[in-house]
Write a structure and sequence with these properties.
This protein is mainly beta and about 250 residues long. It has helices spanning about 5-15, 110-115, and strands spanning about 30, 35-40, 50-55, 65, 70-75, 80-85, 90-95, 120, 130-135, 140, 155-160, 175-180, 185-190, 205-215, 220-225, 225-230, 240. It has one domain (about 5-240). About 5% of the residues lie in helices and about 35% in strands.
Length: about 250
């Protein structure tokens, strides 16, 4: 079945990518009590450079949450806010209740936070938090998902990839993978991106930043740094073509 690539390009424009580069794609947040929260990007310089904060619409200068580079927010049904980010050799998925987030002063994070390995800062602990090894073998694995996050059916997470099952993968391996989390089912499917070979891809310079599934064709598409919009084949691991091609 032919996939309408113009439609995918439109969907891709609003697909969530990592902080801070894609902060304008971050989802609008409305809490269970009806409070609206907005994202603010703090520019490229100064003690808050490259950080993105979340605050109430009427007081964005009083942050409730701050995100460092590579973090991505996502909506969890029933008005929860999820965040995923790299955490050492793991992928961290966490969830906050926006109504519980307490305000803090920017002085608490000025200077040190942007230079640290910490990806998320909040004065309130998350309601759920778990990690998955970023070196899981290809295929489907069972995972323990906190109850608070089981209302989300699917989350697609791109990551650099060196699986422990075949560390000496050579030219036949993949420099990146898509981790497709089926949180409602307690499963994750690892899809190595075989078209991004380790000997041809420098993930420090060229990497997938975001990916999504087309609800009509069920095919995965995405784009990245120094990477055109792409469409994957049905296996989710190989490249069919580019979205800017007819």
């Amino acid at each position: 079945m032919a996939v309408a690539r113009e439609r995918l390009r439109e969907q891709l424009a609003s697909t969530i990518g990592p902080a801070p580069w894609y902060w304008k794609t971050f989802p609008a947040i409305t809490s269970s009590s009806g409070q609206r929260l907005v994202w603010t990007y703090h520019g490229e310089s100064g003690p808050l450079g490259y950080l993105v904060s979340l605050g109430l619409e009427q007081e964005p200068e009083r942050p409730r949450l701050a995100l460092n580079t590579y973090s991505r927010p996502f909506l969890v049904p029933r008005a929860q806010l999820g965040i995923w980010c790299p955490e050492g050799r793991n992928l961290r998925l966490t969830c906050f209740d926006p109504d519980q987030l307490k305000a803090f002063d920017f002085a608490e994070i000025a200077g040190w936070f942007k230079q640290s390995s910490e990806r998320i800062y909040a004065a309130t602990p998350p309601v759920a938090d778990f990690e998955v090894p970023a070196a899981l073998a290809p295929g489907v694995s069972k995972i323990e998902v906190p109850l608070e996050m089981q209302t989300l059916e699917e989350l697609i997470v791109p990551t650099s990839y060196v699986p422990t099952s075949y560390a000496a993968q050579g030219d036949d391996g993949a420099a990146m993978a898509l981790f497709v989390f089926y949180l409602h089912a307690g499963l994750v499917e690892v899809l190595p991106q075989k078209w991004l070979a380790p000997n041809k891809t420098d993930v420090a310079k060229q990497w997938i930043t975001r990916a999504a599934r087309d609800p009509e064709s069920h095919r995965i598409f995405g784009d990245g740094i120094k990477m055109r919009g792409f469409l994957l084949n049905e296996d989710g691991c190989s490249l069919e073509g580019w979205l800017d091609e007819s």
